[in-house]
Amino acid sequence: MGLGQDEIQRIDAYWRAANYLSVGQIYLLDNPLLREELRPEHIKPRLLGHWGTTPGLNFCYAHLNRVIKARDLDMIYIMGPGHGGPAAVANAWLEGGYSEVYRDVTRDEPGMRRLFRQFSFPGGIPSHVAPETPGSIHEGGELGYSLAHAFGAAFDNPDLVVACIVGDGEAETGPLAGSWDSNKFLDPVGDGAVLPILHLNGYKIAGPTVSARIPEEELLQRFEGHGYHPIVVSGDDPEYMHGRMAQALDEALDMIADIQRRARTSGLEGRPVWPAIVLRSPKGWTGPSEVDGVPVEGTWRSHQVPLAQVRSNEEHRRMLREWMLSYRPGELFDGEGAPVEALRSLPPEGGRRMSANPHANGGLLLQDLRLPDFRDYGLEFEGHGTHIGEATRVLGHFLRDVIRANPETFRLVGPDETASNRLSAVYEATDKVWGAELLPVDEHLARRGRVMEVLSEHLCQGWLEGYLLTGRHGLFSCYEAFVHIVDAMFNQHAKWLKVTRGLAWRRPIASLNYLLTSHVWRQDHNGFTHQDPGFLDVVLNKPASVVRVYLPPDANTLLSVADHCLRSRDYINVVVAGKQPALSYLSVEEAILHCTRGIGIWEWASTDGGGDPDVVLACAGDVPTLETLAAADLLRRLFPELRVRVVNVVDLMRLQPAGEHPHGMSDAEYEALFTSDRPVIFAFHGYPWLVHRLAYRRRNHANLHVRGYKEEGTTTTPFDMVMLNDLDRFHLVIDVIDRVPGLGERAAHIRQRMVDERLRHRAHTREHGEDPADIRDWVWPY
Amino acid sequence: MGLGQDEIQRIDAYWRAANYLSVGQIYLLDNPLLREELRPEHIKPRLLGHWGTTPGLNFCYAHLNRVIKARDLDMIYIMGPGHGGPAAVANAWLEGGYSEVYRDVTRDEPGMRRLFRQFSFPGGIPSHVAPETPGSIHEGGELGYSLAHAFGAAFDNPDLVVACIVGDGEAETGPLAGSWDSNKFLDPVGDGAVLPILHLNGYKIAGPTVSARIPEEELLQRFEGHGYHPIVVSGDDPEYMHGRMAQALDEALDMIADIQRRARTSGLEGRPVWPAIVLRSPKGWTGPSEVDGVPVEGTWRSHQVPLAQVRSNEEHRRMLREWMLSYRPGELFDGEGAPVEALRSLPPEGGRRMSANPHANGGLLLQDLRLPDFRDYGLEFEGHGTHIGEATRVLGHFLRDVIRANPETFRLVGPDETASNRLSAVYEATDKVWGAELLPVDEHLARRGRVMEVLSEHLCQGWLEGYLLTGRHGLFSCYEAFVHIVDAMFNQHAKWLKVTRGLAWRRPIASLNYLLTSHVWRQDHNGFTHQDPGFLDVVLNKPASVVRVYLPPDANTLLSVADHCLRSRDYINVVVAGKQPALSYLSVEEAILHCTRGIGIWEWASTDGGGDPDVVLACAGDVPTLETLAAADLLRRLFPELRVRVVNVVDLMRLQPAGEHPHGMSDAEYEALFTSDRPVIFAFHGYPWLVHRLAYRRRNHANLHVRGYKEEGTTTTPFDMVMLNDLDRFHLVIDVIDRVPGLGERAAHIRQRMVDERLRHRAHTREHGEDPADIRDWVWPY
């Protein structure tokens, strides 16, 4: 096999065109076809962009287009080095896809001028492969997640091939290094293929990369050790490289086709060895080889803008012109500035173009989940706070049937914690995906399944993002403390969603749903390192249009919240819920009403008779709700005349002013719940200042006193944990006594009793190693 | 070579003793030597701990002790599966180190009873290898960082060997997967050695591990691909395994000694291939092989507590007794309950014991940095706000001389951004460490050096933590947005420091210093993905005793802050500073005074004549300070009679109430700056609500109006960025007009002018692609 000279010429022309358009984007304000002499005013005053990775991205794009056409492939392209934005934009424009989305950027000279001018320009487009870029599901601004996204896109897309450029800088990151093992979770029957292309251009911003500076033998051993068959394409002579890349792609795609055929027909024994390409080509390939006396092409100096003084330095300007003309634009663009016919006929058509593939605009393909009626899974109601259930276990039954009803469009990911988080009912419907070796002792492991467990929060998050971005649904169940591991990935996904919400052509995708459990208050086995409710603080820094936070206090509210989240679009929903046996407070119908409101007075626990209270006890989260109800119970017995109102918060966003968040309450609504002048003792699941941050503008804020986690903890009993943080029922009563005036002479005496109770409980715990039975088995009065 | 039968017996006895003590910790309240029948009341009511990994950790410990003695090694032990806490505690007790630190936990029967009882018990010790555990620098509660910590400990410790157990669960995490390449950054001359031991016990909490379920050939290729020589120790027969492990350790330590000898004498060509051990042994080895009819030893079911109902189930209790007696405690402990003489003589002595090695209590070894006088590096003063400097470039000169003065105890780490962050003066004194291949084109790369660059924030953080925990100093320079990648690692280090502050025997270590630059306001090349100032929000969730945040507004204040941070102990200091050319506001002497106060009125920019102001303009961060001064300049010209006070905040903690943070101000101090009743317009570097969170308790809080980053951004000009977030000078003037009463009739007119100015500037930017010259080159009036 091999490419004919003609085909090489055509691909080379296409590559030259993309390179020309990339350089133009970085430098030119005007004179896009260099029909005039290049003058300072044609040059952008601020040269912002990254040339170094761009020619390599263009090279792969051109070659992928050839195989897409030759094999009628359904392919998307993930560019790990997303700062090579000009490459994606250039190719989208060449293919015509860009002009279909952005009508004013026409495929002619005026359009080319706009294309150049808008890049990295105020009011224009970002320098990266951003949401604004057609064909992108991966911005790559923060490095490390390309391969995880690629696998996520491939899951349950049996006919899709995801080509994924991994930059050799990115390859140094932990998340990327951990992503190679994704091939142990890819089912060759039901999933598509990922073709990783490790692009060794040798340098990062300022120095060499590790994988480019180890012996090739070692590099190949890495691939083999991760179960890949590496194919090396190495050189700098374009003609040779075109031939070699074409060969390599044919070899790789033949292997993929063969694996899939065997797996899907005769049956494939064992785990397939998937191909991967190692492309070694110079950084800034085809750019200026030397500038101001130092080498640039093939070094880190070509990372951003190889010629930096083009506006002021005539020699630089001459070099830029020479550089651009070296691509021979006269052969590439016609009199109107459109790509010549030979180029226009080269790329695939319609949805086969990588810039227009519907998988890269997943909302186009998204279908609603088929959801069973969550009411059917609710805990039976036997009175408020009288029945014990495990919230996540109840949810597990619902999820089991979600999985049954959506066998190809829903995945549950988590770091080896599905059972530990008590969602194990899902294994009645499905298994954990496991492509590595199986042993007879294994349970719930299979080559295909809806549950994905790997001890890497990064992979869980990256896979799920790739899955959602290509139009499917999912849930990430995670230990609360360790979701901080993906703070940065959350941030980037939130930014992506925020931008896509402003792009009408990007169709809404399913929300990213987090179930945070094994939370701060119940780390009985582990202790301090496992106690951190601060993800909520990270989440609330992101725009109100994107983030939602729910703290259902029991099983039935969790069901209602989960149903709502699974139906939603373009959000990041964070649900915090307990997995331990805990009281159930509401019937399913009450739970629906309460969750719909997001916040509400629990009359059955209040003693204000629906009138003005003396004090408001507010709570959010399962453990704080328990302590609040126990405090209300104590108060009812200790101060029978005291009018106590209990308010429970499920939807944390309700606390914000209406102008700050769509779920926010007006001041009138807020004061109807929290009063305008009574003390509010708020028991909160997380760090207490988060509630203040949400509520500081409210009139009664000076009266708001929040208890929460204040970074006190260790391996101890559940009740000792709340005592360590002054969130316990006795302390809440003390807080009431300290803040409500006129409780009479008994108050000081009762306060001392509460102090003594705390000491007694602490002593009991330290003596017996467990909470006193009256605390442990406490049930709200019938 | 090989171990004699005698030695095998002795090591086996030691291992049995450690296993016995581990099981005892998990289960027993009393009857530690099983001298009585085992009754329910001898069993802990809550069984909390992790058995699965423990016997493997004990196995390695016993064998490492042998080689420490045989070779007089200086060795510490990092236990990646830190939840195997009983192992570390058991060995420390056997060696006597535990009783030296915790006097009441004596090495006899009463002490053993305490040892057992305290584990995972309220008021006792955590279940993990926590700060409370002698010999630990790595808690391992959150998985992924063991190997990075190990390398950090080995840097600049040429005589130290760091044995590092990597769990096969942990091996799935991204950060761990990325850590193997640390060997490209280890200098065999000036650094010590790391001996990784990948412990394949095959299972995580609920399922198998990837690396245990791939063909051994693939596994070995991984090691070879990462430049290691793997030595496999595999089996379950103790006698065989003792012999094999001893052989493997001898082979590995011979290799290490040989590499170091050659590197340090004759000179070693190329990068050495370091040894690594692969230990394949059953999870829960020597524990119950079957419980209630299902296999336990060698499966995930032994992860936590193999026998779960020991208190209530007589059969389980019988099995526990049988299990413990299988270690033959009668041979291991004497009549007093102390280890028999044969055991006592086995471990090394004094500081050679891994539980008492001073490197694992780094503060014991810590020496002050030799710091040059930072005053000598300050920008010359030519008037407030009249001179331009690049803050981080100025800092670079100081750091250069810090490096010169401390050639073996200070490292600068960062993800390939030292030059990009303009600290390149350090290359006048040192190089970047680079153990991989070198090419003639390379600059500032060498086998040894003080700068460590790798495109992995996880490695930067992990290396630095390991380096600090073993008693050295350093600085992590990072793009502000991407420090979120290590949010979780920051959290864990803060937790570690918080706990060690309560342990007198743990000596203070150098602070972890972050320099966050390339910040949100100046991401000219990149855009939205690179804009995130939210790390401060994460930091402020951690205890006041540990965290410090500084926002020096210019070069001289940055110098003063840096000097302070480098002298401090046991803190995490976060310094946010710009790298772009920016105005210098204070002379060095003024900067020292300002930074010492942490907050202050800038009289030279104020027009309140030292009296009561009409409005306070507050600012924190370089760009907000610039906009605030420009706003003050506008106000002085537009409203000559308006009394404006300018307050600048360097030390963010000053805003908190005195009771909340040691740096916090009293209400009187606060009101002396911010008044008790005047509007305060606060221009903040980060998310605006963070300032509210700090200041909500202040009397004048209702008058506090904060501008900051509100998640609006893209690739655009610096001034457009501040305009997008309403932080620009014109908007600050509008904010003043909207909040100060009695500005007269002209106010509405001036307000409109400000609105028009903003539109004019936006139009200019969109037309010309750069900020207007009067904005860009704005200088505070002389």
Secondary structure layout:
2 copies of one chain form a homodimer.
Chain A (H helix, E strand, L loop, with lengths): L4 H23 L26 H18 L2 E6 L5 H11 L1 H5 L7 H10 L27 H9 L5 E8 L6 H6 L13 E8 L15 H10 L2 E7 L3 H27 L9 E7 L9 E2 L2 E2 L18 H12 L3 H4 L8 H4 L42 E4 H15 L4 E5 L17 E2 L11 E2 L4 E3 L3 H13 L3 E7 L7 H14 L11 E6 L17 H5 L7 E4 L4 H13 L4 E5 L4 E4 L3 H10 L1 E3 L13 E6 L1 H17 L5 E6 L17 H8 L5 E5 L4 H7 L8 E4 L10 H7 L4 H11 L6 H23 L4 H4 L6
Parallel strand pairs in A: 1-2, 2-3, 3-5, 4-5, 9-12, 9-13, 10-11, 13-14, 14-16, 15-16, 19-20, 19-21, 21-22
Antiparallel strand pairs in A: 6-7, 8-17, 18-20
Helix pairs in contact in A: 1-2, 1-3, 1-5, 1-9, 2-3, 2-9, 6-14, 13-17, 17-18, 19-23, 23-24
Keywords (chains A, B): Lyase, Thiamine pyrophosphate
Pfam family, one (chains A, B): XFP_C
GO molecular function (chains A, B): aldehyde-lyase activity; magnesium ion binding
The CATH class designation of the largest domain in chain A is Alpha Beta
**CATH superfamily grouping of the largest domain in chain A:** Thiamin diphosphate (ThDP)-binding fold, Pyr/PP domains
Q: How would you state the average pLDDT of chain A, rounded?
A: 96
The backbone outline of chain A, from C-alpha atoms, is elongated
Q: Portion of residues in helices of chain A?
A: 25-40%
Strand content of chain A: 5-15%
Assembly context of the chains: homodimer
The CATH architecture of the largest domain in chain A can be given as 3-Layer(aba) Sandwich
Number of strands of chain A: 22
Which structural class do the helices and strands of chain A define? alpha/beta
Rounded Rg of chain A: 30 Å
Low-confidence segments of chain A, given as residue ranges, are none
Query: Total helix count of chain A?
Result: 25
Largest interface: A-B, 125 and 126 residues
Number of domains of chain A: 3
Named CATH topology of the largest domain in chain A: Rossmann fold
Strands side by side in the biggest sheet of chain A: 12-9-13-14-16-15
Distance between the termini of chain A: 81 Å
